Amino acid sequence: MLEMKRLRLLWELSTRGTVAAVAEALRYTPSAVSQQLALLEREAGVPLLRKAGRRLEFTAAGESLVREVEGLLNGLERAEAMLHSAGDEITGTIRVASFQTAVLALFPAALRHLRETAPHLRVELVQYEPGAALSETWARSFDLVVAEQYPHHATRHIPGLDRVPLTTDRIQLAVPPLGSGVAEFDRVESITDAAGLPWVMEPQGAATRHWAEQACRLAGFEPDVRFETADLQAHVRLIETGNAVALLPSLVHTSTPRVRLLELEGAPRRTLFTAAREASQGHPAISAVRDALDVVVREAEAARLTSSTP
């Protein structure tokens, strides 16, 4: 009889590529992973892996077994969702990955809502880069991810993950407040006026960085990126102290903006969505977190409409 925990390790190896990556993801030692895979081969009675230099490759039998294991894992997840749905209370633990602005702007209120609607549910929240979080959710490191997509910059679609829209978020040019002491900043009224000024952006490789650079290039200039950080609160701090300009989504400003915000041509908006494995569809914990986020978004929109009404 093949042991399910060892089959899971084989599937993880096919997903992550190396024994070291599997060990890191599952908090094992590499030697423990190797030993369990060797035991699985003995149980199977046929070679599942072969060495190719310093890496392991799958044999034909190993590849076939991995495909079967994928189905087994999905089946177990569907069974778990069914059992949890049969209960009277929402219990257990759900691991959620989210990018920084959603962690700051949405989750404090969502968690408060969950304390009232699902008091026995344990929510573990990890700040994670959206693209990597989608992959890790597919790989079963997380149960749910809150991710983002910038205009004309499609986020990777991963088979086996659903995608549920959450809200949209206006993107604006953020500049230091008037009277910052730097006359060049005070004269900025549009993105074209920001040519030649110091910019703060996220590191290379981030979707937000690519989008921001393209927005500057479409405006006719190459941005002078002097500051790089993935922390958007650091962006705000650099801007409000008169050191930089940036393109920021409005969710960054969870309270009264401390910077001057200018509209961009075409009023671009990023899309926020949640994603979970399709095999977990109907799991009450995932539904509860999604419902809580929806409540927070609706309340924020109602508050915004109220504040804008004369």
Automatic annotation (TrEMBL):
**Segments passing through the bilayer:** none
| Top-level lineage group | Bacteria
Keywords assigned = DNA-binding, Transcription, Transcription regulation
Q: Family assignment?
A: Belongs to the LysR transcriptional regulatory family.
- What is the protein name given in its UniProt record? LysR family transcriptional regulator
Q: Is DNA-binding set as a keyword in this record?
A: yes
Please indicate if the UniProt record lists Transmembrane as a keyword.
Answer: no
This chain's source organism reads Gulosibacter sediminis
